[in-house]
Structure formats: structure tokens, C-alpha cells
Amino acid sequence: MRADALRRRATLVSQARRLFAARGGDIGLEAVAAASGVGIATLYRNFPSRESLLVAVVLDILADIRAAVGRAGERGAQDPWEAWSGLVRDLVAMDVGALTDALGRASREGYLAQAVEPQQQALEEVEQLLCRLQDAGTVREDLSALEVVVAVATITRPQPQAIRAAAPDAVGHLVEAFLAWSRAAGGAGRCR
């Protein structure tokens, strides 16, 4: 694929991800095309269906999760707590909770079968890092990778505008509360 075609495809995925997060999975594909600066025919040449676009968005998110785990792993040797808190903040910045409805619908309808293996790999990488951080006495022993992802998705679920206006700092406070709760109280770690 040519470089300009690859950039266009990446832009479509990026804009779809942003719009699905902001407005939900039912947003018209015309809006995705317009936000990407292309016509609807170009979107359909790249993604013949909404489902194929959703799969691309999911794979993009999973790649971002794996990259965040890699960055946290690099930080872990110097400062395990910075690795953990950085990972949580990176995951929160991905706005995974805002995509939950669209992803859940696609998963229930069987569109995400090709994302099962990459999802499992991402969870395994989170679990391996979590084990290292638990063994270092940084993160509580009873926390699993899936629980981390579910917690972040819950924290980042979109709220109605009235609630966002009344409590604009809620997500930040919830992240800090989750980090405080997740800090290890001591112990040998569950993975040794």
C-alpha cells in the first residue's frame, strides 16, 4: 500500500476512534469520512463495512495498550511506582471507556473474532507487567490485568454533559483514588 494510502487509512481509524468515543458507535460513517477529510467512497474502499472499521479501531486500541505496557516496562526498572501510575494514566488517556458500547456491540455480534488473539496478547502483556510490579511490592497482589482494564474503562465511561459540567475533575479524582487503592500494602507478590 502506498504511503499516502496508509496515512489516509490511519486517519480514518483515528477519526473513527475519536468520534466513536465522543458520540458512540452509532455515529454515521459519513461523519467519520468528513472528519477524515475524505469522501464516503474512500472510507468504503478502506473499510467495506462499519464492522471492519470497528475491528480496525479495536486493533488500534490494542496496539496502543501494548505500547503503553512497553513504556511502563522500560520505566519499571528505575521506578516501579512511576511505571504503574504512568501505565494507568496512559490507559486513561486512551478513553477506552468511551468506546465500550461500540466495542461491546461489535463483540456480541461476532465482528471482533479477529481481535481475540491480539486482545489476549495485550492482556498477557499487562498481566506480565503487573506481576513484575506486584513482585516489586508496588501494586496490590489481588489485582489482575482484566480488572485493570475494566477499572480504567469504568473510570473513563462518558457522562452526560450536565454531570461533566458539575464535576469536571471527576475522572482525575477517580484515577488518583484507583492509584491509591492499587498501591501494595506489602507482601511477597503473587507471581514469584
From TrEMBL:
Plastid found in the keyword field: no
Organism classification: Bacteria, Bacillati, Actinomycetota, Actinomycetes, Micrococcales
Pfam families, sorted: TetR_C_43 (PF21597), TetR_N (PF00440)
Protein name: TetR family transcriptional regulator
Keywords: DNA-binding, Transcription, Transcription regulation
InterPro entries named among the record's database cross-references: Homeodomain-like_sf (IPR009057), HTH-type_TetR-like_transc_reg (IPR050109), HTH_TetR (IPR001647), Tet_transcr_reg_TetR-rel_C_sf (IPR036271), TetR_SbtR-like_C (IPR049445)
Record bears the keyword Signal: no
Gene3D superfamilies reported for this sequence: Tetracycline Repressor, domain 2 (1.10.357.10)
Coiled-coil annotated residue ranges, if any: none
Location of the HTH tetR-type domain: 6-65
PROSITE patterns linked to this entry: HTH_TETR_2
Residues of the DNA-binding region: 28-47
GO terms assigned for molecular function: DNA-binding transcription factor activity; transcription cis-regulatory region binding
